[in-house]
Amino acid sequence: MTIDDSKNIILTEIQRIELVFYDRSMNLLGMLIFIKLRIEYGCRIILNKKIKKEKMRKKLLLFCFVLGTQIAFGQGLMNPTIPPSGILYQVATKADTIGFSNQGDWDFSAVVTDNNATVEVLPVSSSSSAGNYPNATHVKYEDGNEFFLGFSNSEYSFHGEISVLTSSYASPLVLHPYPFSVGDIHSDFQFDVPFTVPGGPPFLERDDQAYSEALSTGDLTMPNGAIYTNATLVHTTRTWTDGQVGSSPCITTLDAYHWWVADYAIPVVQTSTMISSGQCPPNMVKVTKFLTGSVMGTSSLDVSGILIYPNPSTNSIHLKNGDRFVGAPYKLLDQLGKTVASGSVIKDSQKIDVSDLPGGVYTLILQDHTNQAVKVVIE
């Protein structure tokens, strides 16, 4: 045992640890380990008087009084570093869940995926609805939806969404704290969150309950052969209870397993089952997503007051232009000059879908009185 081995010891509430040493050098080393525990975690030491002199065997009993549910020696999951302009992830998807062990390592090299997609994590200001989420730091664009998130040094939180419904949480739902280490358990809830559904009845409310547990760490092999070391497997459940005030609710449960790696803003692997019941038609959706390809930081173009991002892009182009181009037509041209997309700018912050276009260099033309042209690379 070395001094650094002490970081592998997990202490829960009031727990006794027995350290057995067989010679004087190990006694000294053990004391150094204890001093580290005593200073950082308030442990006390008792010398066991039952000593077998012939073996110079001493048993030290450490009693550690730990505040909170659990302390793990080691850093655990921390707040990821996200480029100021955001980041784009390429993912491979499978319309089913996958089998795995709760203990690492994990080898998914034999998994066959069905499709490809992208997930963008951008500053919350990229959304035209940012004003409704004043405490969110980022918005995740995934599967055509917008999920408003908060990343801080103390927690990872959920602030609402624009999907089949629109919600904004007055107080965020904490998905898990930072740091978050193996053995840690976290739960949180928000009740009576108002939400709307297009064409739906008034007075809709949601109860949202979240639970997370960090299960284990290990190396992770992806379907494309990429290997991530020190991935942390987190079991997450969400329970949404939705309905009109005074009526029977629709209940949706999400049971998900996420493999997180340091400095990634999304899990590198996630597999989940979502089940609807109650007043909702019974339904089950299974999906697995793997990070694939290169992770691209997004950059932006600022030309004459037009902010265009991300560049390169794979899923959508976002335009922020103040009032200058509201009502103006736009065209997207390929390298042969053919118009592949067109429309009108209908608001000061707009998203243009480019997910169906092949990779290449395209020219975006915003036609105000100057006929401003901007080149945009789509990969």
Could you please describe the fold and organization of this structure?
By secondary structure, this protein is mostly beta strands. The protein has three domains: about 5-70, no CATH class; about 85-295, no CATH class; about 300-379, Immunoglobulin-like, CATH 2.60.40.3080. Helices cover about 5% and strands about 55% of the residues. It is built from one helix and 26 strands. The protein has one helix at about 25-40; strands at about 10, 15-20, 45, 60-65, 70, 85-95, 105, 115-125, 140, 145-150, 155-160, 165-175, 185-195, 205-220, 225-245, 250-260, 270-280, 285-295, 300-305, 305-310, 315-320, 330-335, 340-345, 350-355, 360-365, 375-379. Strands 6-8-9-10-11-12-13-14-15-16-17-18 form a twelve-stranded antiparallel beta barrel. It is globular and about 55 Å long.
Summarize the structure.
The chain has 379 residues and is mostly beta strands.
